Every structure is written in C-alpha cells, then in structure tokens.
UniProtKB/TrEMBL annotation:
Pfam families: FMO-like. One of its GO terms (biological process) is auxin biosynthetic process. Its EC number is 1.-.-.-. This is Flavin-containing monooxygenase. The keyword NADP applies. SUPFAM superfamilies: FAD/NAD(P)-binding domain, NAD(P)-binding Rossmann-fold domains. PANTHER family: FLAVIN-BINDING MONOOXYGENASE-LIKE PROTEIN (AFU_ORTHOLOGUE AFUA_4G09220), FLAVIN-CONTAINING MONOOXYGENASE. It comes from Dovyalis caffra. Keywords: Auxin biosynthesis, FAD, Flavoprotein, Monooxygenase, NADP, Oxidoreductase. One of its GO terms (molecular function) is flavin adenine dinucleotide binding. Pathway: Plant hormone metabolism; auxin biosynthesis. Its cofactor is FAD. One of its GO terms (cellular component) is endoplasmic reticulum membrane.
Length: 412
C-alpha cells in the first residue's frame, strides 16, 4: 500500500519512513486480515514482513500432508471467503492460494525482507519507532501480527549434541519420504506430532511418539459433523463444562478409551483446558488407528539423547536414526518489542480474549487469541473500526487538512 513517505531523518544514520497509516508487523493471515479490514475502512497501512512471501508459516514451515483441521467456514478471513469449490477441509496448497488471492483482491503489498528487530514507543513524539535491518519506520499505530507460532520451541534435552543422526523440528519437516525404513522418534504429541507420526507411517518409516503428559484426542468429526462445529453450536446454549462432558462422552464412544493407548486424558475438559492454558486438543485424522495397531509406538518422556538413540524416563533405551521435535512454537514479540508491558514474558497479551486486541498508545494485536483463524478475523475487524474512528475524530479536528495524521507525525 502506497502509504510511505521517505525522508532522511539522521536517526542512527538510517533512512526513516513516516507511515501515514498503521504499521502491521507480519504478513501472515492475521496481518493480511488487518490490512484488508483497514483498507475497507479507507485506511492505508504498511506491512513489514521478515520473509520473502506472504503466509510464510504456511509456505515455508509446514509439512506437505497438512490440511485444515477445522471446516473452511471457521478459517475464513474477513470480507472474502474461500472459493465455493474448495473442499470442507482445504489442503495447505489451497489455503496458500486463498491467501494469495486475498492479498491480491485487497491490493496488499507487504514490504518483504524487513525483519523488525526493535520497536519502541517514542513518548515525546507519540509515535512507534520500528527498526528493521536497514530502515527505521514510524507510525502512530502499531499492529503486532507476528503470530503465536513465530519460532520453534527447541527443548534442552541432555545429550542433544551427542546424537549421530538427524534432529529436526516439525517446522523443517516436509514429508516422510526421506525417512523410509528408518526408526524415527517424534517428540511431542500435539497435532503436529500426531500428523507427522502418521505421515511417517504412510512412508514406511517406524515412528515412535513421545507422550510425556496428558492429552485430549478428539475425532475430527462426530457423525459427519465437525467436532469443532458441534462444540461451537453447543456453547451457544450450554455451559462450557457440560459441552466438554458431551464431547468426551462421544469421543470415548467413537475412539474408545485412549488412556489404554498411553494417551491419558487431562482432568480438565478439552475446551476449558484450551481456554485456560492454550493447549490445543488433538483432532484425530488417522494417527490413533495407527497407534492402536502398533505402527506408531507410544513412548514415555525422554530422559537423555545418546549417540545412537534415546533413554526414556521409564528406563527403556532404543536406537533411532532420526529425531523429530514436534515440540510446538512460541511468540517472538519479546525479542523485538521493547519497553511495553502489554505482553507477558512469553510474548502473549496479558489481557485475555476478547480484549487482547488493543493496548495503549495505538498498540494493537491480531492473532494472539489462542483461537486460530477465527480469533484473527474477530481482532482484525475490531482494530480497523477502532483506527478508522480515531482518524475520523482527528480529521474532524483538522478540517482544513485532508492528511491530518501526517501533521501528527510531523510534531516530532
Ligand atoms: C502446522 C500448523 C498448522 C496449523 N493449522 C491451523 C488450522 O488449520 N487452523 C487454524 O485456525 N490455525 C492453524 N494453525 C495456527 C496458525 O498459527 C494460524 O493459522 C495462522 O498461521 C496464524 O496467522 P498469523 O498471521 O497470526 O501468524 P503467522 O502465520 O505465524 O504469520 C506471522 C508472520 O509474521 C512474520 N514475522 C514474525 N516476526 C517478524 C518480525 N520480527 N518482523 C517482520 N515479520 C515478522 C512471519 O515471518 C510470518 O509471516 C496452524 C499452525 C501450524 C504451525
Ligand atoms: N492440521 C492442523 O490444523 C494442524 C496441524 C498441526 C498443528 N496445528 C496447530 O498448530 C499449533 C502448534 O501445534 P504443535 O503440535 O506444533 O504444538 P503443540 O500443540 O504446542 O504441541 C507440542 C507438543 O510437544 C510436547 N513437548 C514440548 N516439549 C517437550 C519435551 N521437552 N519433551 C516431550 N514433549 C514435549 C508437548 O507436550 P506437553 O503437553 O507435555 O507440553 C506437546 O505434546 C497448534 O495450535 C495446533 O493446533 C494444526
């Protein structure tokens, strides 16, 4: 979006861009949704993206067999839905093509290869100052859209560096084809761990999956209807704990007792657990039947990695050729947003959903609700309305000037 005005500022001897509208950090689904909603309100914005493409998590860091787990109506961004001919659960490729069509429809042109390294609010001038590797950008509004899954979590496991084989995080896993006939340990049993283990089975590898804790596994569908959809519908009428009880009753009926497979259920129900801790239930797309028939072996926590394998907490020791860390992701906000107490040390807003989208001094967040793309859509709409309202007020006060927010920036 052509909202940049270049000028020499002498700050760190770098060029400084004063941005007329909000600056959005991140061109994932959340950043794109925010830009689209702002554009619909007539507000220009600038997206800074560290990668060289939109939706880089989906394009660069996900495995080939990935499909949305939720039906498409729960994963749509605001203002433009999925094409009618897409299946109920779009593939990764279809989701990426939807993102590309979305960006093109709203004429969103992020500035790529711009890693925001440091951002601070400048009290004196009332602007956010964002430093990338080669430029400084300034705006009255900062929209954080760097995602809950910005960086892989790499656990510190004793012996990690002794291992002779390959260790990789799921963000670098594409397909099981390179692991054919290998004994592979998948550490972690979230949706990534389950699906990667399943993919390894399909490619004739011998996967073992570490389950160190309790986990809720739910069928993706119950009698042909998405489990998520059923939960959403029931929550409109019933208390959360009752909905959880219902989901577990049906899940046990469809899947059987998962405890016996080494997948013990937490005491707290799946939706309550998600709301309280952010821990996502696993939606089963086939891994469970592979566990039942012994093709995916469930292992206890890892005690230590050795030269050729792993020692487990229960005393077992096994050899592996590769280890895949399906240990999840974390926010990277604390690494680049400084002097701002809106976020926890883990880079999540301190204020929970539905009020996590707005901070002070023109700070906003989109996509930090632990509610996936549904949360993104809700944040983006609210942010755009809020900023558009502010601009109307500013313009009202500065009737003689058509570009009133430029004046505010020039106070510095
Ligand atoms: C394997 C996998 C499958 C998933 N499947 C689903 C699903 O089916 N449904 C669902 O709702 N959710 C799913 N999710 C959750 C997923 O995080 C969201 O769908 C979605 O990608 C979130 O969008 P986002 O824009 O908030 O974050 P991201 O997609 O992570 O985008 C953030 C962007 O910010 C950029 N960025 C980060 N730091 C900086 C910086 N310092 N400077 C500049 N740019 C920066 C990144 O490069 C990235 O492009 C999945 C996640 C994973 C890992
Ligand atoms: N198709 C899809 O829609 C799809 C597919 C994949 C992922 N996703 C989404 O992407 C997000 C990330 O999912 P994810 O599965 O990558 O991460 P995740 O849900 O955070 O799961 C991480 C897993 O790793 C385990 N773990 C972490 N550190 C460990 C250690 N040191 N030793 C053993 N186990 C360890 C965790 O166990 P503890 O519980 O004990 O911490 C947990 O089982 C989620 O929102 C998920 O729903 C969606």
């Amino acid at each position: 979006m052509g909202s940049c005005k270049e000028q020499e500022q002498g700050f760190n001897h770098a060029k400084c861009f004063e941005v007329l509208g909000p600056i959005i950090v991140g061109a994932g689904p959340s950043g794109l949704a925010a830009a689209a909603c702002l554009s619909q309100q007539g507000v220009p914005s600038l997206i800074l993206e560290k990668s060289d493409c939109i939706a880089s998590l989906w394009q660069r860091k996900t495995y080939d067999r990935l499909k949305l787990h939720l039906p498409k109506q729960f994963c749509e961004l605001p203002l433009l839905g999925f094409p009618d001919n897409f299946p109920k659960y779009p593939t990764k490729g279809q989701f990426i093509s939807y993102m590309e069509a979305y960006a093109s429809h709203f004429k969103i042109r992020p500035k790529f290869n711009q890693t925001v390294k440091k951002t601070e609010f400048d009290d004196t001038n009332g602007v956010w100052r964002l430093q990338t590797q080669d430029l400084e950008y300034r705006s009255r509004w900062l929209i954080v859209a760097t995602g809950e899954n910005a960086e892989p979590v790499i656990p510190e496991i004793p012996g990690y560096h002794k291992f002779n084989g390959t260790i990789l995080h799921t963000s670098h896993y594409k397909s099981g084809s390179r692991f054919k006939n290998q004994r592979v340990l998948v550490i972690g049993c979230g949706n990534s761990g389950m699906e990667v283990s399943l993919d390894l089975c399909r490619h004739n590898a011998i996967p073992h999956m570490v389950v160190r804790n309790t986990v809720h596994v739910l069928p993706r569908e119950m009698v042909g209807i998405s489990t998520f959809g059923i939960a959403m519908a029931l929550l409109k009428w019933l208390p959360l704990r009752l909905v959880d009880k219902f989901l577990l009753l049906v899940a046990n009926f469809i899947l059987g007792n998962t405890d016996q497979l080494g997948l013990k259920r937490p005491k707290t129900g799946p939706i309550e657990l998600k709301n309280v801790t952010g821990k996502t239930p696993v939606l089963d797309v086939g891994a469970l039947s592979q566990i039942k028939c012994g093709k995916i072996k469930v292992m206890k926590g890892v005690k230590e990695i050795t030269k050729n394998g792993v020692k487990f907490m229960d005393g077992q020791e096994k050899e592996f050729e590769s280890i895949i860390l399906a240990t999840g992701y974390k926010s990277n906000v604390p690494t680049w947003l400084k002097g701002c107490d809106f976020f926890t040390k883990d880079g999540m807003p301190k204020t929970p959903f539905p009020n996590s989208w707005k901070g002070e001094n023109g700070l906003y967040t989109v996509g930090f609700t632990r509610r996936g793309l549904l949360g993104t859509a809700s944040d983006a709409v609210k942010i755009a309305e809020d900023i558009a309202d502010q601009l109307k007020t500013i313009k009202g006060k500065n009737k003689s000037c058509s570009n009133s927010h430029v004046i505010i920036l020039r106070k510095s």
